[in-house]
Structures are given as C-alpha cells and as structure tokens.
C-alpha cells in the first residue's frame, strides 16, 4: 500500500532526510576545498540539487499514486526495475546503517564516553524499528514536529554564533581566479545534499499534491542551501579557514569554542545543539530505513512488513559492527555518497527522459 502525504509533509520530509549527520562535517568539507568562497560552491550545489529535485518530483507528479517501483516497471520493464530496486535497497540500507554507526561514535566521543558503541547502535535501531512499522504517515508527522523544532532552534543559534566571529576570517568573499576550484569543490559537497531520492518512494495524490508541490520541494532545497551557508559561514567566522580544516566535526568544535553572554542562562549551548542534532539524525535514519524496508517489501510481497522490518534492523545491527574503525566507516560513507549520485541523479534522469519520450505526461494530463 502506497501512502500519500500533503505538500507540507513532503517538504519537511526532504528537510528531515537531507539535514542530518552531514551538518557536522560540511564546514570542514566545504572550507577544505573552497576556502572562504565556500558559500559560492554551496549555491551551485543547491542549484544542481534543485534540478534533480524537480526531476524526481515531476516523475511522482506525472505517475500519480505510484512510487518508483510501479512507474519504473511501466517505463523500463521488470528486469531493469529489479536492478534499479537492488541499487536503491543497497544504497538506503548501507546509508542508514553507517549513519547510525557514525552517530553512535560521535555520541560516545562527546557525551556517553563509557557507553559501548554497539549499545548506542542498538538503541537507535529499536527507536527506528518502532517508527518504521508505523509506516510513512507517522514518520512524516514526526518530521513535521522535529524539523520545525530544529529550524526554530538552529537558525537563532547559528546567527548568535556568527555574531561572535570576526569578519576578517570570512575574507576574501570571492576570488575570480578561483572559480575553477569553486566548481570542482561541488563534487565533494554531494553527501550533505543526499536525501532527495526519498521522493521516489512517496506516491503523489491528485487531491493532496497539486502543482504547488514543485514550489514546496524547490523552496525547501533552497532553504536547506541557505541553512548550510549559514552553518559554514558562522564556523569560518569563529575558527577561520586554517582552524576548521583540523576538525572532522568542525561544527561541534565551533559550538564548544563559542561563549555567548546573552545565552548564559542556557549554560551549555553545545547541549542544545546536540539535542537538535539527534532529532535530525532520527528523522534521517527513520526515513532511510523505511525506504529500504519499503522497497524490499515490493520485491518480497508475501513477507509481513513488521517481520521484514525486524530482519532489516537485525542485519543493520550486524553490518554496523563490521567496520573496525571510524576511518573504515568514513571510507564506506564516501563510497555510498557516489552511489547517491546514481540514485538521486542518474536513475531518475533515465526515467524522466523515458517519460518525456513516451509522452506519459501528455497521456496522464
């Protein structure tokens, strides 16, 4: 059964799945490759993401009440669709599994120092299991609440951090001779924007999802891009380019360094950030775990969804413990980010072109 959502829920789902673990590393990634011109690189990455978001949204809008499994079957046949589904399942499964492992490592390093990583992974998976078995509608409502809290909490926080920095750390704002470097740097900003492919497993409804869905999805991607720029610029203003590149979790390192007098009543701004970050992680991994389980259920229709979810969670726990070090997990996540180009870009583009060539958009209008 495919669940339909409102335009607003879909927009918040995009925020929930895109803004997650990547916010910790995006300041270092962008600064390392584009320096103080990172804002320009992020603008380009945002524009590119908007294009692919439009393509995926268009597929859902044209093929009403269908997910990628149904409309890919119609456009390419069962054999090609099976290949596509295997790619998506591996991608979603590995992504949410490795994010859980990396998030558990980050929590152990910063807060729960004596807690084993496997225990933290298990807690994450138990929460996710409960969310996934309640299906997409419940996860969407969670995203609406959590994402609103994250936005209302994070934006004032980063604006406050920005005021504690130095303008000289942000200069030069743009160097004409470095345009090639800025463009090249967009290749390594892929991971923080991954997540738009979640739209492929959402079925659009005629009544709930009119043409305004294009505006909702595009504006949300634009907002995420501006949010990322604010994060990067606030970090650079405080730590400078030379300071950021030495920290993998540059955002957390920046927040711990800042002392905002006007927020002294909160005492620990890093504690507030950590709560917001965990909320975003829960949204991200719940959606990706659901996507993985949902697509598996399309291939194995005779297995009960709750049983299938339990199997996926158990496998995820086992796989999450296989890498022996954080460096190994990071290497896997780098490889997954390149697979994300296929799931968010290549496959939707192929289906989009077939839809246009076969004029399915005209047939269904």
> What is the fourth-level CATH superfamily?
Amino acid/polyamine transporter I
What is the tally of helical segments? 14
How far from one another are the termini? 24 Å
- What is the strand tally? 0
Which stretches of 5+ consecutive residues score pLDDT under 50?
Answer: none
Could you please say which CATH topology applies here? Amino acid/polyamine transporter I
Q: Which structural category do the helix and sheet elements fall into?
A: mainly alpha
Name of the CATH class:
Mainly Alpha
Radius of gyration: 20 Å
Number of individual domains: 1
Question: Sheet bearing the most strands, described?
Answer: none
Q: Helicity, in percent?
A: over 70%
Task: Write down the overall geometry.
Answer: globular
What is the arithmetic mean of pLDDT? 86
* Strand coverage percent: under 5%
- The assembly state of the depicted protein chains is single chain
Transmembrane segments: 9-27, 39-59, 79-100, 112-133, 145-162, 182-204, 216-241, 272-291, 303-324, 336-355
InterPro entries: Spore_GerAB
Pfam families: Spore_permease (PF03845)
Family: Belongs to the amino acid-polyamine-organocation (APC) superfamily. Spore germination protein (SGP) (TC 2.A.3.9) family.
């Amino acid at each position: 059964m495919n669940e339909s959502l409102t335009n607003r829920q879909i927009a918040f789902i995009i925020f929930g799945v895109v803004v997650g673990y990547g916010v910790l590393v995006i300041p270092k990634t962008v600064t390392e490759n584009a320096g103080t011109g990172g804002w320009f690189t992020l603008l380009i990455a945002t524009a590119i993401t908007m294009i692919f978001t439009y393509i995926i949204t268009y597929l859902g809008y044209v093929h009403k009440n269908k997910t990628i499994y149904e409309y890919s079957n119609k456009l390419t046949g069962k054999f090609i669709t099976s290949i596509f589904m295997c790619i998506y399942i591996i991608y979603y499964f590995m992504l949410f599994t490795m994010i859980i492992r990396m998030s558990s490592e980050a929590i152990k390093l910063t807060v729960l120092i004596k807690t084993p990583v496997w225990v933290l992974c298990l807690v994450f998976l138990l929460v996710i299991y409960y969310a996934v078995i309640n299906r997409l509608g419940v996860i969407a409502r969670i995203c609406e609440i959590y994402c609103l809290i994250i936005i209302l909490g994070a934006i004032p926080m980063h604006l406050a951090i920005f005021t504690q920095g130095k303008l000289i750390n942000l200069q030069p704002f743009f160097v004409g001779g470095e345009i090639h470097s800025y463009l090249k740097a967009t290749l390594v900003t892929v991971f923080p924007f991954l997540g738009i492919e979640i739209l492929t497993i959402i079925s659009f409804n005629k009544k709930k999802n009119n043409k305004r869905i294009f505006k909702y999805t595009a504006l949300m991607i634009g907002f995420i891009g501006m949010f990322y720029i604010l994060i990067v610029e606030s970090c650079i203003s405080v730590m400078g380019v030379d300071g950021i590149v030495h920290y993998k979790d540059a955002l957390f390192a920046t927040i711990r360094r800042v002392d905002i007098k006007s927020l002294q009543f909160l005492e620990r701004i890093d504690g507030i950030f950590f709560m917001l970050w965990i909320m975003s992680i829960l949204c991200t991994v719940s959606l990706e775990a659901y996507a993985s389980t949902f697509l598996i259920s399309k291939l194995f229709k005779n297995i009960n969804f709750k049983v299938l979810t339990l199997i996926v969670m158990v496998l995820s726990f086992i796989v999450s413990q296989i890498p022996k070090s954080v460096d190994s997990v990071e290497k896997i996540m780098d490889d997954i980010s390149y697979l994300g180009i296929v799931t968010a870009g290549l496959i939707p583009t192929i289906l989009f072109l077939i839809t246009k060539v076969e004029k399915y958009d005209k047939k269904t209008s």
